[in-house]
Amino acid sequence: MNDCTGARLTGCGGAPTPMQKYIGTKIVFAEPATKGKCYKGPEMMSSEQAAEPGYKVVYPDGYESWSPKAAFEQAYRPTDGMTFGLALEAMKVGKKCARPGWNGKGMYLQAQFPDEHSKMTFPYLYMTIPDCTEGLRRLPWQPAQVDLFSDDWMIIY
């Protein structure tokens, strides 16, 4: 059985094995592409197989693969239309995130992880606000309810 319900799934040896569920978050580059455009294997494929819609995916380490359209779209979202949860995961790995339409241009959030020299003892989010007269201003930030439920978060590059 392979239904991802948390029930016993078939292990590598064919015997039922309890398997742990996982959820993943990674940032990749992708573009729509047919299977035939991306597949570089030695076997021939039918024209129907070659025309199967999907995505060419390039991972951060340069590895390239192809993913079927439905599987890709279930697992990934564009980095300019994310939930707060995905934005938070991106900030945890060092990315800058923002929402369009904030009151000032160039405002963004980042995560801060205290070290032995910090006065803070737990991770927190802070906002950077460009200031023409004083450079950058930074202040601690806490999401409002509307921020938590918005699907317009984006990674700032």
Keywords:
single chain; 157 residues; alpha+beta; three-stranded antiparallel beta sheet; 31% strand
Question: Can you walk through the features of this model?
Answer:
The chain is an alpha+beta fold and about 160 residues long. The protein is about 20% helix and about 30% strand. It contains five helices and ten strands, in the order βββααββααββββαβ. It has helices at about 35-40, 45-50, 70-75, 85-90, 145-150, and strands at about 10, 15-20, 30-35, 55-60, 65-70, 95-100, 110, 125-130, 135-140, 155. It has a three-stranded antiparallel sheet. A three-stranded antiparallel sheet has the order 7-8-9. The longest helix is centred in the middle third of the chain and has 9 residues, at about 85-90. The radius of gyration is 21 Å and the shape is elongated. The two termini are about 40 Å apart.
Describe the structure concisely for a colleague.
The protein is an alpha+beta fold and 157 residues long. It has 5 helices and 10 strands.
Supply the number of helical segments. Answer: 5
Tell the overall outline. elongated
Percent of residues in beta strands?
25-35%
Over all CA atoms, what is the radius of gyration?
21 Å
- Find the count of extended strands (DSSP E, 2+ residues): 10
Low-confidence stretches: none
Strand order in the sheet with the most strands: 3-4-5
Q: Structural class of the helices, strands and pairings?
A: alpha+beta
Q: What assembly state would you assign to the polypeptide chains in this entry?
A: single chain
Mean pLDDT, nearest integer?
85
Major sheet: 3 strands, antiparallel
